[in-house]
TrEMBL record:
Protein name from the UniProt record: GST C-terminal domain-containing protein
Domain of life: Eukaryota
PANTHER family: GLUTATHIONE S-TRANSFERASE T1-LIKE ISOFORM X1, GLUTATHIONE S-TRANSFERASE T1-RELATED
Signal peptide: none
Coiled-coil annotated spans: none
SUPFAM superfamilies xref list: GST C-terminal domain-like
InterPro entries: Glutathione-S-Trfase_C_sf, GSTT1/2/3
Amino acid sequence: MLDWHHSNLRHGTAGYIFDTVLAPAFGLTLNPQAAAEAEKVLLASLANIESVWIQKKGRLLLGSGQPSIADLSLVRELMELESILGQMKAVSGSWFLRRHSIRNFDM
């Protein structure tokens, strides 16, 4: 899971944030095509989390009843995304984030 997370969600997140938030802040030339491609990876990754990695039998990744490093890493990244891109419906509406970002991760 962590390998998938780093090569999919993180790839889309980093590219999208760089091209939509950081580049303008540093006065760099915007690349709308790169931003659109990163957004596609990000949105596909969010959909993949809910359709592949979340299994109905448990509350966490792969149906586990106990949080793993992968769960914590994923929730942390989604919470960062929500704080930076809260207006992005796919991020703020993420079922995983709504369900698993419970205060103090109470189970």
